[in-house]
Design a protein that fits this description.
about 100 residues; 2 domains; mainly alpha
Length: about 100
């Protein structure tokens, strides 16, 4: 990632230094910088793909739900489970009532 202070986002420090000094870069230097940028971009794309992969999204959701229902020692949080049970019964009663009309 680049900071807000970067005058040219995505341009390496070396490239900015060379540009500030008015030094021309050789084709090999430009190719090396392009390769470094490509590798960095590929890593970023892989990280994003991993983050939005449906299996990983589902796993994080299950972990978040489990964290709400179980404490750090692995013991159930009875107050939270009871609240969910009451909410489920209320929803079930509303659906049953609406369906029987």
């Amino acid at each position: 990632m680049t900071s807000d202070a970067d005058p040219v986002p995505g341009m390496s420090y070396e490239a900015r230094t060379n540009a500030a000094a008015g030094r021309e870069r050789s084709p090999a230097e430009i190719e090396a910088e392009i390769e470094q940028t490509r590798v960095r971009l590929a890593g970023t794309v892989d990280a994003i793909a991993d983050r939005v992969k449906p299996a990983n999204v589902a796993r994080r959701g299950v972990e978040a739900a489990r964290a709400q229902l179980v404490d750090e020692r692995g013991q159930p949080r009875t107050a939270m489970i009871a609240a969910l049970a009451v909410a489920a019964l209320a929803v079930g009663a509303l659906l049953f009532r609406r369906h029987s009309r």
